Protein backbone atom coordinates (compact mmCIF):
# COMPACT_ATOMS: atom_id res chain seq x y z
CA UNK A 1 0.00 0.00 0.00
CA UNK A 2 2.75 2.43 0.95
CA UNK A 3 4.71 1.60 -2.21
CA UNK A 4 1.55 1.99 -4.25
CA UNK A 5 1.00 5.48 -2.91
CA UNK A 6 4.42 6.53 -4.21
CA UNK A 7 3.54 5.37 -7.72
CA UNK A 8 0.46 7.58 -7.58
CA UNK A 9 2.36 10.76 -6.75
CA UNK A 10 3.27 11.83 -10.32
CA UNK A 11 -0.25 11.05 -11.53
CA UNK A 12 -1.83 13.15 -8.80
CA UNK A 13 0.52 16.06 -9.53
CA UNK A 14 -0.58 15.75 -13.15
CA UNK A 15 -4.25 15.95 -12.14
CA UNK A 16 -3.70 19.10 -10.09
CA UNK A 17 -1.73 20.73 -12.88
CA UNK A 18 -4.49 19.94 -15.38
CA UNK A 19 -6.98 21.53 -13.01
CA UNK A 20 -5.01 24.76 -13.10
CA UNK A 21 -2.48 24.53 -10.25
CA UNK A 22 1.07 25.51 -11.12
CA UNK A 23 3.64 22.77 -10.79
CA UNK A 24 5.36 24.11 -7.65
CA UNK A 25 2.14 24.45 -5.67
CA UNK A 26 0.73 21.17 -6.97
CA UNK A 27 3.91 19.40 -5.95
CA UNK A 28 3.81 20.91 -2.47
CA UNK A 29 0.16 19.98 -2.02
CA UNK A 30 0.76 16.40 -3.15
CA UNK A 31 3.75 16.08 -0.83
CA UNK A 32 1.54 17.17 2.07
CA UNK A 33 -1.13 14.69 1.04
CA UNK A 34 1.53 11.99 0.79
CA UNK A 35 2.81 12.67 4.31
CA UNK A 36 -0.80 12.54 5.50
CA UNK A 37 -1.35 9.25 3.65
CA UNK A 38 1.72 7.69 5.23
CA UNK A 39 0.27 8.62 8.61
CA UNK A 40 -3.37 7.68 8.09
CA UNK A 41 -3.42 4.76 5.66
CA UNK A 42 -1.76 2.15 7.85
CA UNK A 43 -4.69 2.41 10.29
CA UNK A 44 -7.41 3.55 7.90
CA UNK A 45 -6.72 2.43 4.33
CA UNK A 46 -8.83 4.23 1.69
CA UNK A 47 -10.96 2.35 -0.80
CA UNK A 48 -9.76 4.51 -3.68
CA UNK A 49 -6.17 5.55 -2.92
CA UNK A 50 -5.81 7.76 -5.97
CA UNK A 51 -9.10 9.58 -5.44
CA UNK A 52 -8.19 10.01 -1.77
CA UNK A 53 -4.86 11.59 -2.68
CA UNK A 54 -6.43 13.86 -5.30
CA UNK A 55 -9.07 15.05 -2.83
CA UNK A 56 -6.63 15.72 -0.01
CA UNK A 57 -4.00 17.30 -2.27
CA UNK A 58 -6.60 19.49 -3.97
CA UNK A 59 -7.87 20.66 -0.58
CA UNK A 60 -4.32 21.46 0.52
CA UNK A 61 -3.75 23.34 -2.71
CA UNK A 62 -6.91 25.40 -2.19
CA UNK A 63 -5.91 26.13 1.42
CA UNK A 64 -2.49 27.28 0.29
CA UNK A 65 -3.96 29.43 -2.46
CA UNK A 66 -6.50 31.01 -0.10
CA UNK A 67 -3.90 31.80 2.52
CA UNK A 68 -1.79 33.52 -0.07
CA UNK A 69 -3.26 36.99 -0.36
CA UNK A 70 -0.95 37.97 -3.16
CA UNK A 71 -2.42 35.20 -5.25
CA UNK A 72 -6.01 36.09 -4.65
CA UNK A 73 -6.72 36.72 -8.26
CA UNK A 74 -5.49 33.33 -9.27
CA UNK A 75 -7.58 31.76 -6.51
CA UNK A 76 -10.70 33.22 -8.01
CA UNK A 77 -9.79 31.77 -11.36
CA UNK A 78 -9.02 28.33 -10.03
CA UNK A 79 -11.08 27.72 -6.91
CA UNK A 80 -14.33 28.13 -8.74
CA UNK A 81 -13.72 24.86 -10.51
CA UNK A 82 -15.01 22.11 -8.27
CA UNK A 83 -13.18 18.84 -8.63
CA UNK A 84 -15.02 16.72 -11.11
CA UNK A 85 -16.65 13.67 -9.51
CA UNK A 86 -15.87 10.11 -10.49
CA UNK A 87 -12.67 8.74 -11.96
CA UNK A 88 -9.82 11.08 -12.78
CA UNK A 89 -8.96 11.37 -16.47
CA UNK A 90 -6.04 9.11 -17.26
CA UNK A 91 -4.08 11.34 -19.63
CA UNK A 92 -0.49 10.24 -19.46
CA UNK A 93 1.86 13.10 -18.83
CA UNK A 94 4.46 10.94 -17.11
CA UNK A 95 7.28 11.87 -19.49
CA UNK A 96 6.58 15.60 -19.22
CA UNK A 97 6.80 15.41 -15.45
CA UNK A 98 10.03 13.38 -15.54
CA UNK A 99 11.50 15.82 -18.05
CA UNK A 100 10.51 18.84 -16.00
CA UNK A 101 12.28 17.38 -12.96
CA UNK A 102 15.36 16.63 -15.07
CA UNK A 103 15.29 19.96 -16.90
CA UNK A 104 18.71 21.02 -18.25
CA UNK A 105 18.51 24.31 -16.34
CA UNK A 106 18.81 22.29 -13.09
CA UNK A 107 22.12 21.21 -11.60
CA UNK A 108 22.47 17.41 -11.33
CA UNK A 109 21.89 17.42 -7.57
CA UNK A 110 18.79 19.60 -7.93
CA UNK A 111 17.39 17.43 -10.72
CA UNK A 112 17.96 14.27 -8.68
CA UNK A 113 16.26 15.73 -5.60
CA UNK A 114 13.26 17.03 -7.52
CA UNK A 115 12.87 13.76 -9.42
CA UNK A 116 12.92 11.69 -6.24
CA UNK A 117 10.25 13.89 -4.66
CA UNK A 118 7.86 14.73 -7.50
CA UNK A 119 8.23 11.52 -9.51
CA UNK A 120 9.44 9.12 -6.85
CA UNK A 121 7.07 10.26 -4.13
CA UNK A 122 9.79 10.21 -1.49
CA UNK A 123 9.52 12.66 1.36
CA UNK A 124 12.11 15.41 1.78
CA UNK A 125 13.30 13.67 4.92
CA UNK A 126 13.93 10.40 3.07
CA UNK A 127 15.82 12.14 0.26
CA UNK A 128 17.91 14.06 2.79
CA UNK A 129 18.72 10.81 4.59
CA UNK A 130 19.68 9.11 1.33
CA UNK A 131 22.15 11.85 0.45
CA UNK A 132 23.31 12.45 4.02
CA UNK A 133 22.46 16.14 4.19
CA UNK A 134 20.20 17.95 6.70
CA UNK A 135 16.49 17.94 5.92
CA UNK A 136 16.43 21.77 5.84
CA UNK A 137 19.16 21.79 3.19
CA UNK A 138 17.31 19.27 1.04
CA UNK A 139 14.05 21.22 1.43
CA UNK A 140 15.83 24.34 0.15
CA UNK A 141 17.41 22.45 -2.72
CA UNK A 142 13.99 21.23 -3.80
CA UNK A 143 12.24 24.59 -3.53
CA UNK A 144 15.05 26.28 -5.45
CA UNK A 145 14.76 23.61 -8.13
CA UNK A 146 11.04 24.29 -8.37
CA UNK A 147 11.65 28.01 -8.74
CA UNK A 148 14.18 27.29 -11.48
CA UNK A 149 11.66 25.35 -13.56
CA UNK A 150 8.70 27.59 -12.70
CA UNK A 151 8.56 29.00 -16.22
CA UNK A 152 8.79 25.64 -17.99
CA UNK A 153 5.55 24.53 -19.60
CA UNK A 154 4.30 21.07 -18.79
CA UNK A 155 2.49 20.48 -22.04
CA UNK A 156 5.57 20.03 -24.23
CA UNK A 157 7.05 16.65 -24.97
CA UNK A 158 10.07 16.07 -22.72
CA UNK A 159 13.58 15.06 -23.67
CA UNK A 160 14.12 11.39 -22.82
CA UNK A 161 17.92 11.80 -22.78
CA UNK A 162 18.06 14.21 -19.86
CA UNK A 163 15.61 12.08 -17.90
CA UNK A 164 17.69 8.96 -18.37
CA UNK A 165 20.84 10.74 -17.22
CA UNK A 166 19.17 11.69 -13.94
CA UNK A 167 17.87 8.15 -13.36
CA UNK A 168 21.34 6.79 -14.11
CA UNK A 169 22.79 9.15 -11.48
CA UNK A 170 20.30 7.98 -8.88
CA UNK A 171 21.05 4.33 -9.62
CA UNK A 172 24.78 4.80 -9.55
CA UNK A 173 24.65 6.37 -6.10
CA UNK A 174 23.76 2.93 -4.76
CA UNK A 175 22.27 3.09 -1.34
CA UNK A 176 23.03 4.81 1.90
CA UNK A 177 20.71 5.76 4.72
CA UNK A 178 17.28 4.19 4.82
CA UNK A 179 16.41 4.59 1.14
CA UNK A 180 17.62 2.12 -1.44
CA UNK A 181 18.40 4.49 -4.31
CA UNK A 182 19.30 1.70 -6.73
CA UNK A 183 15.93 0.02 -6.22
CA UNK A 184 14.23 3.39 -6.43
CA UNK A 185 15.94 4.19 -9.74
CA UNK A 186 14.80 0.83 -11.10
CA UNK A 187 11.23 1.51 -10.00
CA UNK A 188 11.22 4.93 -11.65
CA UNK A 189 12.75 3.59 -14.86
CA UNK A 190 10.14 0.81 -14.98
CA UNK A 191 7.43 3.40 -14.49
CA UNK A 192 8.88 5.52 -17.29
CA UNK A 193 9.11 2.51 -19.59
CA UNK A 194 5.45 1.77 -19.01
CA UNK A 195 4.63 5.27 -20.27
CA UNK A 196 7.25 5.82 -22.98
CA UNK A 197 8.14 3.48 -25.80
CA UNK A 198 11.83 4.21 -26.38
CA UNK A 199 14.70 1.73 -26.84
CA UNK A 200 17.07 3.71 -24.62
CA UNK A 201 14.58 3.69 -21.73
CA UNK A 202 14.53 -0.09 -22.10
CA UNK A 203 18.33 -0.05 -22.44
CA UNK A 204 18.78 1.81 -19.17
CA UNK A 205 16.33 -0.47 -17.37
CA UNK A 206 18.19 -3.53 -18.68
CA UNK A 207 21.51 -2.01 -17.59
CA UNK A 208 20.20 -1.39 -14.09
CA UNK A 209 18.70 -4.86 -13.74
CA UNK A 210 21.87 -6.57 -14.93
CA UNK A 211 23.99 -4.64 -12.41
CA UNK A 212 21.45 -4.99 -9.64
CA UNK A 213 21.58 -8.74 -10.18
CA UNK A 214 25.19 -8.73 -8.95
CA UNK A 215 24.49 -6.68 -5.89
CA UNK A 216 24.73 -9.49 -3.34
CA UNK A 217 28.04 -10.63 -4.82
CA UNK A 218 29.68 -7.21 -5.04
CA UNK A 219 30.82 -7.15 -1.43
CA UNK A 220 32.53 -9.76 0.71
CA UNK A 221 31.01 -10.65 4.10
CA UNK A 222 33.39 -8.14 5.71
CA UNK A 223 32.01 -5.38 3.48
CA UNK A 224 35.06 -5.09 1.22
CA UNK A 225 34.69 -4.70 -2.56
CA UNK A 226 34.66 -7.88 -4.61
CA UNK A 227 35.88 -7.30 -8.17
CA UNK A 228 33.83 -8.75 -11.01
CA UNK A 229 36.35 -11.49 -11.80
CA UNK A 230 36.26 -12.82 -8.23
CA UNK A 231 32.55 -12.60 -7.59
CA UNK A 232 30.67 -15.78 -6.73
CA UNK A 233 28.48 -15.95 -9.82
CA UNK A 234 26.08 -18.38 -8.20
CA UNK A 235 25.03 -15.43 -6.07
CA UNK A 236 23.97 -13.35 -9.06
CA UNK A 237 20.21 -12.96 -9.20
CA UNK A 238 19.27 -15.07 -12.22
CA UNK A 239 15.72 -13.69 -12.42
CA UNK A 240 17.03 -10.18 -12.77
CA UNK A 241 19.60 -11.32 -15.34
CA UNK A 242 16.91 -13.05 -17.37
CA UNK A 243 14.62 -10.06 -17.21
CA UNK A 244 17.41 -7.60 -18.05
CA UNK A 245 18.66 -9.69 -20.95
CA UNK A 246 15.16 -10.08 -22.36
CA UNK A 247 14.48 -6.35 -22.20
CA UNK A 248 17.84 -5.63 -23.80
CA UNK A 249 17.34 -8.08 -26.66
CA UNK A 250 13.93 -6.61 -27.48
CA UNK A 251 15.41 -3.10 -27.42
CA UNK A 252 18.38 -4.02 -29.63
CA UNK A 253 16.04 -5.59 -32.16
CA UNK A 254 14.45 -2.20 -32.70
CA UNK A 255 17.51 -0.73 -34.32
CA UNK A 256 17.74 2.42 -32.21
CA UNK A 257 21.08 1.80 -30.56
CA UNK A 258 22.18 4.15 -27.80
CA UNK A 259 24.74 4.24 -25.03
CA UNK A 260 22.58 2.59 -22.37
CA UNK A 261 21.82 -0.37 -24.60
CA UNK A 262 25.52 -0.68 -25.42
CA UNK A 263 26.46 -0.55 -21.72
CA UNK A 264 23.78 -3.10 -20.97
CA UNK A 265 25.18 -5.31 -23.71
CA UNK A 266 28.55 -5.34 -21.92
CA UNK A 267 26.81 -6.20 -18.64
CA UNK A 268 24.87 -8.96 -20.42
CA UNK A 269 28.08 -10.50 -21.76
CA UNK A 270 29.43 -10.67 -18.22
CA UNK A 271 26.15 -12.11 -16.97
CA UNK A 272 26.33 -14.71 -19.70
CA UNK A 273 29.77 -16.04 -18.75
CA UNK A 274 29.57 -18.99 -16.31
CA UNK A 275 33.07 -18.10 -15.08
CA UNK A 276 35.22 -14.98 -15.44
CA UNK A 277 37.61 -16.96 -17.69
CA UNK A 278 34.81 -17.71 -20.11
CA UNK A 279 33.97 -14.03 -20.68
CA UNK A 280 33.74 -13.17 -24.37
CA UNK A 281 36.21 -10.27 -24.15
CA UNK A 282 36.44 -9.85 -27.91
CA UNK A 283 32.74 -9.02 -28.01
CA UNK A 284 33.10 -6.81 -24.94
CA UNK A 285 35.78 -4.79 -26.79
CA UNK A 286 33.47 -4.50 -29.80
CA UNK A 287 30.73 -3.07 -27.63
CA UNK A 288 33.17 -0.60 -26.12
CA UNK A 289 34.15 0.46 -29.65
CA UNK A 290 30.47 1.05 -30.28
CA UNK A 291 30.15 2.96 -27.01
CA UNK A 292 33.11 5.16 -27.87
CA UNK A 293 31.34 6.09 -31.08
CA UNK A 294 28.04 6.75 -29.27
CA UNK A 295 29.64 8.89 -26.57
CA UNK A 296 31.96 10.82 -28.90
CA UNK A 297 35.03 9.23 -27.35
CA UNK A 298 34.19 9.44 -23.63
CA UNK A 299 37.46 8.98 -21.68
CA UNK A 300 35.65 6.89 -19.06
CA UNK A 301 34.53 4.49 -21.78
CA UNK A 302 38.05 4.49 -23.25
CA UNK A 303 39.44 3.51 -19.83
CA UNK A 304 37.03 0.58 -19.51
CA UNK A 305 37.83 -0.41 -23.06
CA UNK A 306 41.55 -0.56 -22.16
CA UNK A 307 40.71 -3.12 -19.43
CA UNK A 308 38.75 -5.19 -21.93
CA UNK A 309 41.54 -4.98 -24.53
CA UNK A 310 43.94 -6.20 -21.85
CA UNK A 311 41.77 -9.27 -21.33
CA UNK A 312 41.14 -9.90 -25.02
CA UNK A 313 44.62 -9.26 -26.45
CA UNK A 314 46.94 -9.33 -23.46
CA UNK A 315 48.23 -6.75 -20.98
CA UNK A 316 50.65 -5.10 -23.44
CA UNK A 317 47.78 -4.31 -25.79
CA UNK A 318 45.77 -3.08 -22.81
CA UNK A 319 48.58 -0.76 -21.74
CA UNK A 320 48.88 0.56 -25.29
CA UNK A 321 45.14 1.34 -25.28
CA UNK A 322 45.49 2.92 -21.84
CA UNK A 323 48.26 5.22 -23.06
CA UNK A 324 45.72 6.93 -25.32
CA UNK A 325 43.39 7.70 -22.38
CA UNK A 326 43.95 10.92 -20.39
CA UNK A 327 45.55 10.00 -17.06
CA UNK A 328 43.21 12.39 -15.25
CA UNK A 329 40.27 9.97 -15.60
CA UNK A 330 39.38 8.49 -12.20
CA UNK A 331 40.70 4.94 -11.72
CA UNK A 332 43.31 5.35 -14.49
CA UNK A 333 46.18 4.40 -12.18
CA UNK A 334 44.20 1.47 -10.79
CA UNK A 335 43.80 0.12 -14.33
CA UNK A 336 47.49 0.68 -15.05
CA UNK A 337 48.41 -1.19 -11.85
CA UNK A 338 46.22 -4.13 -12.85
CA UNK A 339 47.61 -4.33 -16.39
CA UNK A 340 51.22 -4.00 -15.19
CA UNK A 341 50.58 -6.84 -12.72
CA UNK A 342 49.17 -9.01 -15.50
CA UNK A 343 52.27 -8.19 -17.51
CA UNK A 344 54.40 -9.59 -14.68
CA UNK A 345 56.20 -6.48 -13.37
CA UNK A 346 55.19 -6.99 -9.76
CA UNK A 347 57.39 -4.35 -8.06
CA UNK A 348 56.11 -1.67 -10.44
CA UNK A 349 52.52 -2.91 -10.02
CA UNK A 350 52.88 -2.69 -6.23
CA UNK A 351 54.00 0.90 -6.49
CA UNK A 352 51.13 1.72 -8.84
CA UNK A 353 48.54 0.11 -6.54
CA UNK A 354 49.80 2.35 -3.73
CA UNK A 355 49.46 5.44 -5.95
CA UNK A 356 46.05 4.31 -7.14
CA UNK A 357 44.89 3.88 -3.52
CA UNK A 358 45.89 7.47 -2.75
CA UNK A 359 43.80 8.66 -5.72
CA UNK A 360 40.71 6.52 -5.06
CA UNK A 361 37.41 8.38 -4.90
CA UNK A 362 35.92 6.29 -2.14
CA UNK A 363 37.08 4.36 0.89
CA UNK A 364 36.03 0.93 -0.43
CA UNK A 365 38.19 1.33 -3.54
CA UNK A 366 41.08 2.73 -1.52
CA UNK A 367 40.98 -0.26 0.80
CA UNK A 368 40.72 -2.67 -2.12
CA UNK A 369 43.75 -1.14 -3.85
CA UNK A 370 45.73 -1.05 -0.61
CA UNK A 371 45.03 -4.78 -0.23
CA UNK A 372 46.29 -5.40 -3.76
CA UNK A 373 49.57 -3.69 -2.90
CA UNK A 374 49.78 -5.70 0.33
CA UNK A 375 49.08 -8.94 -1.55
CA UNK A 376 51.94 -8.32 -4.01
CA UNK A 377 54.33 -7.32 -1.22
CA UNK A 378 53.51 -10.52 0.67
CA UNK A 379 54.51 -12.38 -2.52
CA UNK B 1 26.97 15.78 -5.65
CA UNK B 2 29.94 15.43 -3.46
CA UNK B 3 30.83 16.58 -0.02
CA UNK B 4 33.81 18.76 0.79
CA UNK B 5 35.33 19.87 4.05
CA UNK B 6 36.41 23.51 4.31
CA UNK B 7 38.94 23.56 7.10
CA UNK B 8 39.96 26.65 9.06
CA UNK B 9 43.16 26.74 11.08
CA UNK B 10 44.22 28.67 14.16
CA UNK B 11 47.79 27.79 13.24
CA UNK B 12 49.45 25.91 10.46
CA UNK B 13 47.95 27.50 7.37
CA UNK B 14 50.12 29.80 5.24
CA UNK B 15 49.92 33.43 6.40
CA UNK B 16 46.85 35.32 5.25
CA UNK B 17 47.08 38.69 3.46
CA UNK B 18 45.40 40.59 6.33
CA UNK B 19 47.57 38.97 8.98
CA UNK B 20 46.41 40.44 12.28
CA UNK B 21 45.37 37.93 14.94
CA UNK B 22 41.81 38.15 16.17
CA UNK B 23 42.76 39.24 19.70
CA UNK B 24 43.97 42.53 18.20
CA UNK B 25 40.73 43.30 16.38
CA UNK B 26 38.15 45.74 17.73
CA UNK B 27 35.02 44.16 19.25
CA UNK B 28 33.05 45.45 16.25
CA UNK B 29 35.45 43.74 13.86
CA UNK B 30 35.06 40.47 15.76
CA UNK B 31 31.27 40.82 15.62
CA UNK B 32 31.39 41.63 11.90
CA UNK B 33 33.49 38.52 11.33
CA UNK B 34 31.08 36.28 13.24
CA UNK B 35 28.13 37.81 11.41
CA UNK B 36 29.81 37.09 8.07
CA UNK B 37 30.30 33.44 9.04
CA UNK B 38 26.67 33.09 10.15
CA UNK B 39 25.38 34.77 7.00
CA UNK B 40 27.57 32.54 4.86
CA UNK B 41 26.15 29.40 6.50
CA UNK B 42 22.61 30.74 6.17
CA UNK B 43 23.12 31.45 2.49
CA UNK B 44 24.54 27.97 1.90
CA UNK B 45 21.51 26.50 3.59
CA UNK B 46 19.23 28.54 1.33
CA UNK B 47 21.25 27.26 -1.67
CA UNK B 48 20.71 23.68 -0.53
CA UNK B 49 24.48 23.18 -0.15
CA UNK B 50 25.02 23.27 3.62
CA UNK B 51 25.73 20.11 5.60
CA UNK B 52 27.44 21.12 8.81
CA UNK B 53 29.63 23.75 10.40
CA UNK B 54 31.35 23.71 13.77
CA UNK B 55 33.97 25.72 15.60
CA UNK B 56 36.58 24.11 17.81
CA UNK B 57 38.18 25.41 20.97
CA UNK B 58 41.95 25.80 20.69
CA UNK B 59 42.38 23.73 23.87
CA UNK B 60 42.53 19.93 24.09
CA UNK B 61 45.18 17.22 24.21
CA UNK B 62 46.82 14.38 22.32
CA UNK B 63 45.62 11.01 23.61
CA UNK B 64 46.79 7.49 22.86
CA UNK B 65 46.39 3.91 24.03
CA UNK B 66 49.13 2.81 26.42
CA UNK B 67 48.57 -0.92 26.70
CA UNK B 68 45.92 -3.21 28.17
CA UNK B 69 44.76 -2.24 31.66
CA UNK B 70 46.61 1.06 31.62
CA UNK B 71 45.03 4.50 31.35
CA UNK B 72 45.53 6.30 28.04
CA UNK B 73 48.52 8.60 27.73
CA UNK B 74 47.51 12.26 27.63
CA UNK B 75 49.84 14.88 26.24
CA UNK B 76 48.82 18.49 26.12
CA UNK B 77 47.99 21.28 25.80
CA UNK B 78 48.98 21.92 22.21
CA UNK B 79 51.84 24.34 22.88
CA UNK B 80 54.14 22.59 20.41
CA UNK B 81 51.57 21.69 17.78
CA UNK B 82 52.15 23.52 14.53
CA UNK B 83 48.82 22.61 12.99
CA UNK B 84 45.74 23.63 14.96
CA UNK B 85 42.26 23.37 13.47
CA UNK B 86 39.79 26.13 14.33
CA UNK B 87 36.67 24.78 12.75
CA UNK B 88 35.07 23.41 9.64
CA UNK B 89 32.22 23.66 7.26
CA UNK B 90 30.94 20.68 5.28
CA UNK B 91 29.26 21.45 1.96
CA UNK B 92 27.45 19.25 -0.54
CA UNK B 93 27.98 20.61 -4.05
CA UNK B 94 27.93 19.47 -7.66
CA UNK B 95 31.57 20.09 -8.53
CA UNK B 96 35.06 20.67 -7.18
CA UNK B 97 34.97 24.08 -8.89
CA UNK B 98 31.94 25.07 -6.82
CA UNK B 99 33.69 23.95 -3.63
CA UNK B 100 36.68 26.13 -4.51
CA UNK B 101 34.41 29.06 -5.32
CA UNK B 102 32.72 28.83 -1.93
CA UNK B 103 36.01 28.45 -0.07
CA UNK B 104 37.20 31.61 -1.82
CA UNK B 105 34.13 33.48 -0.61
CA UNK B 106 34.54 32.19 2.94
CA UNK B 107 38.18 33.26 2.93
CA UNK B 108 37.02 36.83 2.32
CA UNK B 109 35.53 37.03 5.84
CA UNK B 110 36.36 40.47 7.27
CA UNK B 111 39.15 40.86 9.82
CA UNK B 112 41.21 43.78 11.10
CA UNK B 113 40.09 47.11 9.69
CA UNK B 114 36.99 45.41 8.28
CA UNK B 115 39.09 44.22 5.35
CA UNK B 116 38.96 40.61 4.05
CA UNK B 117 41.38 38.30 5.82
CA UNK B 118 42.22 36.34 2.63
CA UNK B 119 42.94 33.43 4.94
CA UNK B 120 44.00 30.11 3.47
CA UNK B 121 41.35 27.41 3.84
CA UNK B 122 41.95 23.76 3.31
CA UNK B 123 39.45 22.13 0.89
CA UNK B 124 39.23 18.35 1.16
CA UNK B 125 36.93 15.99 -0.73
CA UNK B 126 35.01 13.39 1.26
CA UNK B 127 35.19 9.84 0.04
CA UNK B 128 31.96 9.08 -1.81
CA UNK B 129 30.17 5.78 -2.21
CA UNK B 130 31.52 3.31 -4.77
CA UNK B 131 29.61 3.64 -8.04
CA UNK B 132 27.26 0.77 -8.83
CA UNK B 133 28.25 0.71 -12.50
CA UNK B 134 32.00 0.62 -12.95
CA UNK B 135 32.67 -1.32 -16.12
From TrEMBL, chain B:
Describe the location of the YCII-related domain by residue ranges. 20-109
Pfam families in UniProt = YCII
Do you know which InterPro entries this protein is assigned to? Dimeric_a/b-barrel, YCII
Q: Which SUPFAM superfamilies match?
A: Dimeric alpha+beta barrel
Task: Provide the family line.
Answer: Belongs to the YciI family.
Q: What is this protein called?
A: YciI family protein
